[in-house]
Amino acid sequence: RRWSSTGRAPPLASAGCDRQGGPVPPTLAALLRHPPRCTATRRASHRAHGCHTDHVTCRIATVQMEAVPGDVDANVARITHLVHDAAAGGADLVLFPEAAVTGYDDRAFAGPLPDLTASGWRSPVQDAVDRTGVTAVVNSALERDGCRALSDVIFTPGREPLAAYDKQHLHDSERAVFTPGDHGASFVLNGLRFALSVCYDA
Prior knowledge:
This protein is of the alpha/beta class and 202 residues long. Helix content is 28%, strand content 20%.
């Protein structure tokens, strides 16, 4: 099991252990509870001591989740829960893994796929983003304009979801199903620019 955040993880003892004696991942909120490296108070202190360099802070929650193949409703429920969990820990941006909505599964990819025109799957995620104020990048296998792609969808408070980036470097089994993306994409949050990529693209 792996988990990560921009903050320092708490001691292993605070996370607990499972029945096999391995570490139990703490919640995203617990991982993100530690203060950022440069807070407003620290910036004021830097200026008082003659340092005028501003440090931009963006707290990022990176999610590893086990999606249920083909069960979009269950996966979306998990995603919305994790958005709230990350926001409770102070995250500004939440990043989800490849095919988080559909699950990474050949049979799921071959069946009906969600699209951005159907509000059923995206409304709960958008609602979670609107309520918490965080930005979420959620990857899904999508049906768009007669093509299938592994797409990064950006959910931003108060805005329509945007399928901003499609995976470009497809594996052998993916090439039979998906159309590769043909351009890069980036977005700005808290004064920082983030470039998007999916799996092998990086």
